[in-house]
Design a protein that fits this description.
The chain has about 500 residues and is α/β, with parallel strands linked by helices. The protein contains 15 helices and 23 strands. Bound molecules: nicotinamide-adenine-dinucleotide (NAD). Nicotinamide-adenine-dinucleotide (NAD) binds near residues 164, 221 and 243.
Length: about 500
Amino acid sequence: MSAMTTPSEVPTRLQTCLHFIGGEYVASASGETFANLNPATGKVLGQIAKGDAVDVDRAVQAARQAFESGPWARMTVRERCRILQKVGDLILDRQEELARLESLDAGKPISESLTGDIPRSAWNFQFFAEYAPAQAEDCFSVDAQERHFVVREPLGVAALITPWNLPLYLATWKIAPCLAMGNSCVLKPAEWTPMTATVLGEIMNEAGVPPGVFNVVHGFGAGGAGEALTTHPAVSAISFTGETSTGKAIMRNAADGLKKVSFELGGKGANILFADADLDTAIETSVRAAYRNQGEICLAGSRLLVQDTIYDEVIERLKARIATIRVGDPLNPQTSMGAIISREQMEKVLQYIEIGKSEAKLVMGGERLDGPGNFITPALFRDVAADARIAQDEIFGPVLPVIRFRDEAEAIAIANSTRYGLSASIWSRDVHRCHRMAAAIRTGLVWVNCWFARDLRTPFGGMKASGLGREGGRYSLEYFSEAKTIAYRYQPE
Ligand code: NAD
């Protein structure tokens, strides 16, 4: 492992991450802060303003004021999108700075932040800036005298609550369509990863987003800024990405206010290898699907289902490929796996590794590296039963259980046996089999001979305990707006 970061490497202005309210950086009304820890060193990177209901109210009032009295909601979608395009361009201009901050905060390899998270964050804005103005509005003709127009109007103030695993990437996935439709928003980033959301405030100001349209409040979830946002009477909609249990709590809290909700929740993706697959590509991709971003991806292929005739061969090939994964300093460009986000998350993953040892056979990895950082070597388990806890629960870490199956019917039954329904991959050269499998699997996304392929126009979201609603393309634009029907009857001359 190479030398790790010291606190002085964080720019002075981010040594305390402040809220961004009404276009300005402000401390919490209480003056309280909490520590921002570096997952790779355990050292304090800086402080984070600890938002509470008072700060949330300030941010929501700023957002409401901007919505009701500012120019944003009255601009044409094209005018707004010209500004959002600039936001995307500015993110790209600051790609290296943002990638470094993301890796420091989240422990993810710099190679992933630089080529994955940050360009995608820019693309989220650039995509919606092009896509939103191109959408047609519906008009239905009943007869020669009657027309029914469907227009889409903004909702008002939206609360956007995001997790730590893909911080800027997932925040911008919500912010871009939300603002394109004329809403104002308050973002509550995860308490572990405040830095890029804070910098986004500077970028919004520079791009010309009017004050109050975009706000950030830092802090905790339950009992903190997150919960205060979900119960604030002036918030019309909540778009949340995070754990399934948090989604349930938010739904309960939002019920009184009848707020519109959209949830992207947990997953336990089945990655299914048939004996007739292109094994070179399938194995290479399966390793990435399991361990990319330390396995901290909702779409991870976190269960590998392998047909029994190739089971032993696949295990041997996985072993060889996993042995090449370099675990270490997230800022080293050669690193392929970084640090687990927090001490708590690392303890949870290590506990699952212990559970796995009692349920199945640990082939390799699963060790905590010496030192103060949260590093675990990639764990591979074989002979895992489909109902084992490591095969059912979302671990959200570098742990891959490999399950054996005989035929299609058994593969489908295993794939559908968890409470989640976010994504799955099928690997086979038989197009008819792929088609049958894709139809039978109960997930919002099915990949055939690939993983993590996305077109931002398509719906993204989960079935069962993996979510509620869809994001992406027109699905996001529909979520972040109200449809209004205006019927006209023309008087004949
Ligand atoms: P989390 O649910 O603990 O936290 C997510 C966010 O919700 C944080 O900002 C947190 O402060 C906030 N929060 C927590 N409790 C809250 C409450 N009661 N009210 C309001 N806000 C609250 O999730 P996490 O640990 O940050 O992220 C990991 C989880 O996110 C995993 O389950 C993963 O699968 C899921 N995830 C899903 C997707 C998807 O698109 N489906 C994408 C990424 C991550």
